[in-house]
Write a structure and sequence with these properties.
The protein has about 400 residues and is α/β, with parallel strands linked by helices. The chain folds into two domains: about 1-15 and about 265-385, Beta Barrel (Lyase, Ornithine Decarboxylase, Chain A, domain 1), CATH 2.40.37.10; about 50-260, Alpha-Beta Barrel (TIM Barrel), CATH 3.20.20. The chain has helices spanning about 5-10, 20-35, 50-60, 70-80, 95-105, 115-120, 160-170, 190-200, 230-250, 260-265, 295-300, 385-390; strands at about 15-20, 40-45, 65, 85-90, 105-110, 130-135, 155, 175-180, 210, 255, 265-280, 285, 305-310, 315-320, 330-340, 345-350, 370-375, 375-380. Strands 1, 11, 12, 13, 14, 15, 16, 17 and 18 form a nine-stranded mixed β-sheet that branches. Helix 8 (about 190-200) runs parallel beside helix 9. The longest helix has 19 residues, at about 230-250. The chain is globular, with a radius of gyration of 23 Å.
């Protein structure tokens, strides 16, 4: 697809997100084929990329959906997912939001003792998942490690006796155990350690039918970067899971909620070069975008390969790539690129996950358009915002002072 990106940018303008649907299909199939268990259910993490056309693509592949808000649930329903194929795994939401999800008919995950008791009082027969905090540090950095003792996510493993008392008191059926330790995990032994710990907790719940291990699989961001060997993990994990099912004499469902693994590598972000600015320290390349469109480098210190697709054979030079936002919005420092000129198009790789979905209108800038390529065809799947979009919900009052 990369050879065609210049033409796509010319047709739809920049800044622009472009997703390769064939890559998404390939990643989904590789994940599915990695696990050899009787019952496997993949739930795409909607928060990674919420465009309805992308969600419909996952629906067509047989995926379920992992949602963290009522709005994501509503988008999933609009994309054609059945309520029972949606897992609601929020954090810190109100009991009213849980009630709405229950009334819709989705599966729900509880990660708070207070909410668990409220659910027991109002919906005593509702089957639920319990999200467990295993107190294990895992993930690429502190911002994406969510299973340690200071994390806001999950019910502590030390609070399981309270969970057991409440579920018994209110006749709550625990149909699944859920755990997610973090993102960008490479080592297979982390998943194995978590699995063995979760199995000891699952032993205490007679009615469980599923164990959900979230996600956290690392993808490659740059040449020679580490990545999760999904085939290796699938083989080892399947063995562990099958042994546990045999021990329990139950054909449990193994569930995962991958987001980044599924869509990150499919995405390209395209931006025009506004200006080249030489200073005493370095040469800045300023593009027609900023952290309002792609915040991951500033928020997570994430690396995105950048290529000058307008001058692929140009002389190599060193640049710092920055945005047009009135804040420090540096995409990359001291990056070697083919010579960059004004109006050249820069390609940011690995822009499929947590990129558009984290975009904003900061500085009153419009959000970009989105395009999907699939089986040789190109589709506009979100139009670029306009001034009317920025103003449509504002109410101007008469002001006299």
């Amino acid at each position: 697809m990369k050879n065609n990106l210049s033409h796509i940018a010319q047709e739809y303008g920049t800044p622009l997100y472009v997703y390769d649907g064939d890559v998404i299909i390939e990643k989904y199939q590789s994940f599915k084929n990695a696990f050899d268990v009787k019952n496997l259910k993949i739930h795409f993490a909607a928060k990674a990329l919420t465009n309805l056309s992308i969600l419909k693509l996952f629906k067509e592949m047989g995926s379920g959906l992992d949602c963290v808000s009522i709005q994501e649930i509503q988008m999933g329903l609009k994309a054609g997912f059945a309520p029972e194929d949606i897992i609601f795994t929020p954090n810190g939401v109100s009991i009213e939001e849980y009630e709405e999800a229950i009334n819709i008919g989705t599966k729900i995950t509880i990660d708070n003792i207070s909410i668990l008791e409220k659910i027991g009082l109002k919906f005593p027969n509702t089957p639920i998942f319990i999200r467990v905090n295993p107190h294990l540090m895992a993930g690429g950095n502190n911002n994406i490690s969510v299973g340690h003792i200071d994390s806001k996510f999950g019910i502590s493993i030390h609070q399981i006796p309270i969970v057991l008392r409440l579920t018994k008191k209110y006749n709550i059926k625990v149909e699944g155990i859920h755990v997610h330790t973090g993102s960008d995990i490479v080592q297979a032994d982390i998943f194995e350690r978590v699995a063995k710990l979760i199995f000891t907790i699952a032993d205490q719940f007679e009615d469980i039918t599923s164990i959900d291990f979230g996600s956290g699989f690392k993808i490659k961001y740059k040449e020679n970067d580490l990545e999760t060997d999904i085939a290796k993990i699938g083989t080892q994990f399947s063995k562990l899971f099958n042994e546990y099912c045999e021990k329990r004499q139950k054909d449990l469902t193994l569930r995962f909620e991958p987001g980044k693994f599924m869509v990150s590598e499919s995405g390209s972000f395209l931006a025009d070069v506004n200006v080249i600015k030489q200073t005493t320290a370095c040469t800045f390349v300023a593009v027609n975008s900023g952290f309002n469109h792609l915040i991951r480098p500033m928020f997570y210190n994430s690396h995105h390969n950048i290529k000058n697709i307008s001058n692929p054979n140009g002389e190599k030079k060193m640049y710092s790539v920055v945005g047009y936002i009135c804040e420090s919005d540096t995409f990359a420092t001291d990056r070697i690129l083919n010579e960059v000129r004004e109006k050249d198009i820069l390609l940011f790789e690995n822009a499929g996950a947590y990129c558009y979905s984290m975009a904003s209108n900061y500085n009153s800038r419009f959000k970009p358009a989105e395009v999907l390529t699939l089986k040789g065809e190109t589709h506009l799947i979100r139009e670029r915002e306009t001034m009317e979009d920025l103003l449509k919900n504002q109410k101007v009052i008469d002001i006299k002072i």
